[in-house]
Design a protein that fits this description.
- The chain is of the alpha+beta class.
- The protein has one domain: Gcn5-related N-acetyltransferase (GNAT) (Aminopeptidase, 3-Layer(aba) Sandwich), CATH 3.40.630.
- It is 29% helix and 38% strand.
- The chain is built from 4 helices and 7 strands, in the order βααβββαβαββ.
- It has a 7-stranded mixed beta sheet with strand order 1-2-3-4-5-7-6, sandwiched between helices.
- It is globular.
- The chain starts with 5 loop residues before the first strand and ends with a strand.
Length: 154
């Protein structure tokens, strides 16, 4: 666990770094879809939160969540390779979950690459369960595991 992890809302200035981390950590081998322009749109979207985890001035990772009436969709989350397994992902998800609960949302849904065993273990430890397999979700031959977790009622 990294001491002093802080979570803050991202600004437009964070978009390039977020997009670059997405390209390396998530979109490796895929067409680049989470460009700085797309990330900026999420930052400006009132139905979404984009957060950055950091210690001091050093960014550790980011997460993007879109909120619906009943379900929040974790669109994207990544932590720098050298900062993994220290609590940044868990801290960002907890922050976003609190917002969802305050809005009366009952569940969080996300997709993870079927071949990303680390991510699947991480989400499983946090209580997410597999709901479906989405064939070709990321690209032809690259499937997604659809995961969901119900939130505790307030």
């Amino acid at each position: 666990m990294v001491a002093g992890i802080a979570i803050r809302l991202a600004t437009a200035e964070d978009a390039t770094g977020i997009a670059a981390l997405s390209r390396i950590a998530i979109e490796s081998g895929l067409p680049w879809r989470w460009t700085p322009t797309r990330v900026r749109r999420c930052i400006a979207d009132a139905a979404s939160n984009v957060v950055v985890a950091h210690v001091g001035g050093s960014p550790l990772g980011f997460a993007i969540m879109k909120y619906g009436d009943d379900t929040a969709h974790l669109l994207l989350m990544a932590v720098h390779r050298d900062a993994r397994r220290r609590g940044a992902g868990r801290a960002m998800l907890a922050w976003l979950e609190q917002v969802a609960q305050a809005a009366g949302i009952g569940r969080i849904r996300l997709e993870a690459r079927h071949d990303n065993e680390d991510a699947l273990r991480f989400y499983s430890r946090l209580g997410f369960v597999q709901m479906a397999l989405s064939h070709g979700y990321y690209a032809p031959g690259i499937d997604a595991v659809v995961l969901e977790r119900r939130l505790a009622a307030r």
